[in-house]
Specification:
The chain is α/β, with parallel strands linked by helices and 253 residues long. It has two domains: 2-35 and 43-183, P-loop containing nucleotide triphosphate hydrolases (Rossmann fold); 188-252, no CATH class. The chain has helices at residues 12-24, 78-90, 128-135, 155-167; strands spanning 2-3, 50-51, 66-67, 71-74, 95-98, 118-121, 141-145, 171-175, 184-197, 200-214, 220-227, 248-252. Helix 3 packs parallel to helix 4 (155-167).
């Protein structure tokens, strides 16, 4: 994982130089699932112009992934965000996380991701959207968590970021802020934990209920199960079952 230098107190040229230096250390390369134009998408296979997502969650999204050059509003569910990062980096994407210093990224390798392809900007300074605007022009996925008191972002404030997003290369996820007219909305909540029973045991997995809403389309829902299922914590021979490395969709609709 790459940690950005502290941008606090830097003027804009200094921030640009610091971010470019950080990104230069990450390298590039193609992102699997984004190499060719796909007119008729095969279920489970992302089309061109998107960043891959975990498992069959692709079937809840119109093009099978997070749309590049567009905004996706995601609920404040850190577990889902970690799985999105793992799926993206596991397919070769470069991911930036802006304004989320306490997001736990330790589970990314276990979920099939690559921490070397993640850059973290814990404190973007007094103009966080300006930092995110720089990143969307060179990354594959940018995750911006808004910590301001007012979650509503006006059109004039959002316009520069939206313009750079449309010109850039990244899919932009925004959490905690209401930008005008996002292309996709993803709500998520952990609804169950597995592995604990009768006051003993440890958490081996959990379920995330996800609802995906796209413009002019009814919501689609899925239940993602991360880790072991309740009935798969042990084999009949007594040997433990390894946790699943990525979410499985156990119900969609």
């Amino acid at each position: 994982m790459t940690r950005s230098p502290d941008l606090t107190g830097m003027d804009r040229p200094a921030r640009v130089r610091a971010l470019r230096a950080t990104l230069a250390t990450m390298g590039g390369g193609p992102v699997r699932g984004d190499a060719e134009d796909v007119w008729h998408r095969v279920p489970g296979v992302p089309s061109a112009g998107v960043v891959p997502v975990p498992g069959n969650l692709a079937d809840c999204l119109p093009r099978g992934g997070l749309p590049r050059r567009e905004v996706t509003a995601v609920g404040d569910c850190p577990a889902l965000v970690v799985e999105l990062i793992a799926a993206a980096t596991g397919n070769g994407a470069r991911v930036a996380v802006v304004g989320w210093p306490d997001l736990l990224l330790a589970g990314i390798p276990d979920a099939g991701g690559n921490l070397d392809r993640v850059v973290v900007i814990p404190d973007p300074g007094p103009r966080p959207f300006a930092v995110t605007g720089m990143l969307v022009e060179g990354m594959d996925l940018v995750i911006h968590r808004w910590s301001g008191e007012d979650a509503a972002v006006g059109v004039s404030q959002a316009r520069p970021l939206l313009a750079r997003t449309r010109r850039g290369t990244a899919a932009l996820i925004v959490i905690g802020a209401r930008l005008p007219a996002p292309s996709v909305r993803i709500g998520a909540d952990i609804v169950a934990y597995h592995g604990i029973g009768a006051g003993s045991g440890r958490i081996r997995g959990f379920d995330i209920a996800v609802e995906v809403t796209v413009k002019a389309a009814p919501p689609r829902r899925a239940l993602l199960r991360v880790g072991c299922t309740p009935v798969e914590t042990a084999r009949t021979d007594g040997h433990p079952v390894s946790p699943w490395p990525v979410p499985r969709v156990v119900r969609t609709g």
